[in-house]
């Protein structure tokens, strides 16, 4: 990756995530490209799912096209063809997905892009008209689809880079805890755009209980990482940030 390409990627990452920017720039060469490229591909996909001006059907078709392209043969022209009907509406981070994919080192790129493809396909199913989260089991499936499986891939990045082994079950809890925390914190914004990720009949107590049920595993996932490892530098600060946000809410005690 040239210095210009790295600067472009990090500029885009910083634009979309203050949470993950600092952990990413703290990564050593090789792992920096892997984490930055993977994050941006995932973000490119997420921007389709969350697009405020596209219909559920259009978002689903786009996500299916992304998944199919990643599974078959990722090239810029093939992705451009997928995006063409909505090019004017899609953000730059999505339109440049092929660039972000090329940043990921070849030795781990297939694994990272497989996760992007799987996440896009699962998001496509959640975007279909009439599909909603009705039960805790639905919420489990959703948080796994958009966050839990992503943490599994980052676990593979640590193993690929320096052999760091992590507990995948605890990693799943980490992903679910942070995603559920986002769902809780973004409640009003989501409802304003007509989206509801809360199971039917759930109130704050149930959602906070769901978050709490995953936090022990999330803490264990980070605590088991070597103190000086890139893995801990990457995943430790975002967890502490979310714990701090949740601790400021009424009747919560997540910072302990």
Please, could you describe this protein's structure?
The protein is an all-alpha fold and 256 residues long. The chain has 2 domains: 1-131, no CATH class; 132-256, no CATH class. It has 13 helices and no strands. The N and C termini lie far apart (41 Å). 39% of the residues are buried. Keywords: Transferase. It holds the Pfam family SQS_PSY. It comes from Lentzea albida. This is Farnesyl-diphosphate farnesyltransferase.
Quick rundown:
It holds the Pfam family SQS_PSY. The protein is mostly helical and 256 residues long.
Topology of this structure?
Elements: H1 3-16, H2 18-25, H3 31-49, H4 56-72, H5 76-83, H6 92-95, H7 97-103, H8 109-127, H9 136-162, H10 168-185, H11 187-192, H12 204-223, H13 230-247
Helix pairs in contact: 1-2, 1-3, 2-13, 3-7, 3-8, 3-9, 4-5, 4-8, 8-9, 9-10, 10-12, 12-13
GO molecular function: transferase activity
Protein name: Farnesyl-diphosphate farnesyltransferase
Keywords: Transferase
Keywords:
single chain, 256 residues, mainly alpha, 13 helices
Low-confidence segments, given as residue ranges, are none
**Overall mean pLDDT:** 92
Succession of helices and strands = HHHHHHHHHHHHH
Q: Helical segment tally?
A: 13
Largest sheet report? none
Structural class: mainly alpha
Helix percent band: over 70%
Shape: globular
How many domains is the backbone divided into?
2
In terms of quaternary structure, the protein is single chain
Number of strands: 0
Q: What value does the Rg take, in angstroms?
A: 18 Å
- Distance from N terminus to C terminus (CA atoms, Å) equals 41 Å
Binned strand content:
under 5%
């Amino acid at each position: 990756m040239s210095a210009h390409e790295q600067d472009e990627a990090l500029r885009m990452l910083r634009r979309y995530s203050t949470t993950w920017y600092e952990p990413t720039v703290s990564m050593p060469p090789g792992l920096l490209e892997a984490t930055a490229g993977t994050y941006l591909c995932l973000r490119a996909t997420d921007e389709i799912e969350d697009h405020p001006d596209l219909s559920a059907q259009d978002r689903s078709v786009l996500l299916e096209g992304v998944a199919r392209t990643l599974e078959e043969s990722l090239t810029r022209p093939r992705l451009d063809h997928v995006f063409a009907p909505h090019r004017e509406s899609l953000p730059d981070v999505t339109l440049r997905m092929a660039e972000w994919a090329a940043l990921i080192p070849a030795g781990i790129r297939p694994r990272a892009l497989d996760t992007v493809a799987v996440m896009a396909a699962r998001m496509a199913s959640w975007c279909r008209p009439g599909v909603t989260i009705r039960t805790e089991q639905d919420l489990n499936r959703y948080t796994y689809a958009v966050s839990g499986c992503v943490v599994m891939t980052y676990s593979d990045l640590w193993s690929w880079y320096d052999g760091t082994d992590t507990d995948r079950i605890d990693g799943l809890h980490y992903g679910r805890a942070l995603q559920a925390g986002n769902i809780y914190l973004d409640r009003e914004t989501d409802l304003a755009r007509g989206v509801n990720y809360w199971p039917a009949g759930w109130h704050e107590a149930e959602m906070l209980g769901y978050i709490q049920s995953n936090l022990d595993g999330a803490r264990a996932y980070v605590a088991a990482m070597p103190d000086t490892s890139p893995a801990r530098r990457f995943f430790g600060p975002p967890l502490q940030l979310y714990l701090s946000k949740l601790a400021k809410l009424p009747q919560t005690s997540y910072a302990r």
